[in-house]
Automatic annotation (TrEMBL):
Entry superkingdom: Eukaryota
Protein name: Uncharacterized protein
Amino acid sequence: TSVPLGNKTPLVGLDAGNHALWDRTSPLTRKAFGALVGMGGVDSVWGRERVQRWESLVLASLNERGMPRAQRGLFLGISAVYYAAEQAGAHSKIMTREALVKALRKKSAELIEYEDEKLAIVNLSLVIILLEHVLHRKARIVCKRNWTLGEERESFVATWTLGFYLRHLEA
């Protein structure tokens, strides 16, 4: 399952008529997208109300696109999830979803006052909603990008291609 969202979605041109989020088959997503776009262009201030509308859009899209919910187990956070965790000082350690979300919310609250932190605020909000939706509150997650493997101590960088590889390995 995929969702047509990324951490740069609300920071680039938001032309409602030409965006995948303006889909007639997803009325809640469409409504939330319209509410966000109605707050102004990409240069608008990212205060609490705008962040709440962004989070509503993310949640609506996850729900309408059938993203899995309350998954249990141990998960690896890479890409945007890793960068959010790194920014919050919660990377490279195994933690519960609850603990990670708490750290992300704390960092988001600190950054909300800084206009030059739009991308960080948007990414933190996206990751918070994604984790709350997809992972069970007791699920565990480690957000790590750089790994050292084997006796030779070779370095490996986990990017989105790792997930792509693992998905096809299962098939």
